[in-house]
Amino acid sequence: MTIVTPPATVDEPWPVALLSAKIKGWIDRLGTVWVEGEITQWGISGGTVYGKLKDLAVDSTIGFTIWSSVRAKLPDDLKQGDRVVALLKPNYWVKGGTLTMQVFEMRHVGLGDLLERLERLRQTLRTEGLFDASRKRALPFLPGRIGLITGRDSDAEKDVLRNAQLRWPSVEFRVVHAAVQGDRAAAEVTAAIRELDGDPTVDVIIVARGGGDFQNLLVFSDEALVRAAAACSTPLVSAIGHEADRPLLDDVADLRASTPTDAAKRVVPDVAEELDKVRQVRARLGMRMTTLVSREIDRLEQLRSRPVVANADWIVDSRSEELGRYIGRSHELVQVRLERAADRVDGLRSHLRSLSPQRTLERGYSIAQLPDGSILRDGAAARHGDRLLLTLAKGTVSTTVDGPPSDQATPR
Q: Helix 155-167 and helix 260-267: axis angle, to 10°?
């Protein structure tokens, strides 16, 4: 049998307990429900978890309670910032007049699918060669200007600027602020990378964030952002600062820094260390030069102590006798050659004389020439009355052909 409670009036109001009981009854009839949201508060007191769950799209938050008996069945890695689905039952506490949600189950939402998609993208980028060490560029020794992409007023920005200026006080930065988590983060970081890459004064780009959980770092595994970083012509340093959950940006960057502070140390040289290196190099150079000069001085002293340099007269003394022998030998050779040449000249002269026409004339022969000057070799060529010129061993005579030509024509 159902007891009907009369409506409350100003004359007959309900007791607070009755109103609370009716609210509790209405809420208890709702039963359990699965909801999705982001954990924005997670605190433990006496083994019980007290937290808040925020809607993913609008500004709406509910509180929840996880009793210790239920918490023992939940994943150990649940924490603030996680995106979860939870089985809740609304619970109205009559004594305090508060509404809370009692959690019976809670788990990460879509984490397995997300990891699978991330791994497929990783394999695709690796197949395209975007992770290859051969395509990574060396950082400049001393960049003229450093481009920094980070959240506004973030600890990462302060760490990079402070440590870089401590190492090299005159270092210059161009800072572009962008969201580093949330829905706008991927697009803003991508645009910032392209903006700094198009600046010819920027020699290296640092993308910095001070760590975070896995889901907050997913923005740095966004495909468009990662491909923009891979296409960047300016050397890029990833300084996300998380060792366990490595975003894809770390793999395509030219250099991965473990923290923003490490990025500043890797990009900017330490002026004190460089000055110390210069001093060490100068000291080594001075020692080597001193050693080289000393060694050359010793070599010169050794050369000067040799007899050939200490007393040059010995060269003339030792070579003069040999030179005298060469001179005497040359005289002998010249004399022999002259004698042989004279003998040859005499032989040629005798031979020439024996063949000379003069020698024939001296033996009593003569040469007869016709009036035209030609030599008379045949008596038939002479006609009666021709005058002939006879050349003798000494002098010439003229004669006239007397009689007809014959084999024994006699000139007179």
A: 30
